[in-house]
């Protein structure tokens, strides 16, 4: 809350006020307000400078923090339905001022002090935030020689600083990009060299296999040619006896017959003798 009191309007609220008794609730309110004061937390105080609302705002400032009870359930009470919490011992109504401070909180925020809350947010919190942001960005009220510097001049100075910083970062990003491109190119070149070496190796293997196949083809062609020559010679030899078979066969038969006759005659002469 200490870090928020300079940024927003703080209105302390005690939730689930129906969980403790009224006596304990009053003691808790006093304890809470004393802790806020002791820790220097600046809470929103309802304005009392307007005579029309000064009395009610003073009374509401004395009742801070507001003890509220919330409920989305509707309970039938008499002839109407009301937002309430139902317990075995009774009903706690949200919009009953004797049960909780919800109605007071709603009236103070929405009906009575809405415009003052908006004005406080704009004139105090937003202006404080804007001044702090300008100081963080380097916009001071005086220049380097203790001369007043307008907001436009301070803006131009800061814009040039930001532009220079942006140029420096762009240059760094370009150098980083070039370095990464070079690294990627070196990786790609190394991969290309590996692929080229692999291609050359496969090419050599292919040439060797091709030479082996050529050698086998020549050997088979030589065998086919030799076989063809042998086949032609054998066919030639087979065709020659068929052409000259007539007279040679008859001569052989006549010689065999004459030899048989001479042998037979010789055998008969020997027997007679």
Description:
It is built from six helices and five strands; from the N terminus they run βααββββαααα. The chain has helices at 22-38, 51-62, 102-112, 114-137, 151-243, 245-272, and strands at 13-14, 66-67, 74-77, 80-87, 90-93. The model has no long low-confidence stretch (mean pLDDT 81). With 273 residues, the protein is mainly alpha-helical. The termini are far apart.
Quickly list its features.
three-stranded antiparallel β-sheet, elongated, mainly alpha, 68% helix, single chain, 273 residues, two-stranded parallel sheet, 6 helices
Quick overview of this protein structure:
The protein has helices at 22-38, 51-62, 102-112, 114-137, 151-243, 245-272; strands spanning 13-14, 66-67, 74-77, 80-87, 90-93. The chain is mainly alpha-helical.
As a percent range, the share of helical residues equals 55-70%
Write down how many β-strands occur, each being a DSSP E stretch of 2 or more residues. 5
Shape: elongated
Q: Main sheet: which strands, in order across?
A: 3-4-5
Could you give the distance between the termini?
171 Å
Low-confidence stretches: none
Q: What's the gyration radius in Å? A: 61 Å
Order of helices and strands: EHHEEEEHHHH
Please state roughly what percent of the residues sit in beta strands, choosing from under 5%, 5-15%, 15-25%, 25-35%, 35-45% or over 45%: 5-15%
Number of helices: 6
Helix/strand/pairing class, anyone? Answer: mainly alpha
The averaged pLDDT comes out at: 81
Largest sheet: 3 strands, antiparallel
Topology of this protein?
Layout: E1 13-14, H1 22-38, H2 51-62, E2 66-67, E3 74-77, E4 80-87, E5 90-93, H3 102-112, H4 114-137, H5 151-243, H6 245-272
Parallel strand pairs: 1-2
Antiparallel strand pairs: 3-4, 4-5
């Amino acid at each position: 809350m200490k870090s928020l009191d300079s940024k927003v309007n703080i209105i302390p609220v005690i939730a689930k006020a129906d969980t403790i008794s009224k006596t304990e609730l009053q003691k808790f309110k006093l304890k809470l307000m004393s802790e806020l004061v002791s820790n220097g937390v600046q809470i929103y105080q309802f304005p009392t400078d307007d005579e029309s609302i000064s009395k009610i705002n003073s009374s509401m400032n004395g009742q801070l923090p507001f003890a509220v009870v919330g409920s989305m359930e509707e309970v039938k009470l008499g002839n109407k339905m009301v937002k309430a919490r139902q317990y075995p011992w009774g009903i706690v109504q949200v919009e009953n001022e004797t049960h909780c401070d919800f109605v007071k909180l709603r009236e103070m925020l929405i009906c009575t002090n809405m415009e003052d809350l908006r004005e406080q947010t704009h004139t105090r919190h937003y202006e404080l935030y804007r001044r702090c942001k300008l100081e963080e960005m380097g916009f001071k009220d005086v220049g380097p020689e203790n001369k007043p510097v307008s907001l436009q001049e301070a803006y131009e100075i800061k814009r040039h600083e930001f532009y220079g910083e942006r140029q420096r970062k762009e240059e760094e990003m370009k150098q980083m990009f070039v370095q990464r491109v070079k690294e990627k190119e070196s990786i790609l070149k190394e991969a290309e060299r590996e692929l080229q070496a692999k291609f050359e190796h496969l090419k050599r293997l292919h040439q060797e296999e091709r030479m082996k196949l050529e050698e086998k083809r020549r050997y088979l062609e030589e065998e086919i040619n030799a076989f063809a020559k042998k086949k032609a010679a054998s066919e030639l030899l087979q065709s020659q006896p068929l052409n000259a078979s007539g007279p040679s066969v008859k001569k052989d038969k006549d010689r065999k017959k004459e030899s048989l006759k001479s042998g037979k005659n010789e055998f008969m002469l020997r027997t007679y003798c």
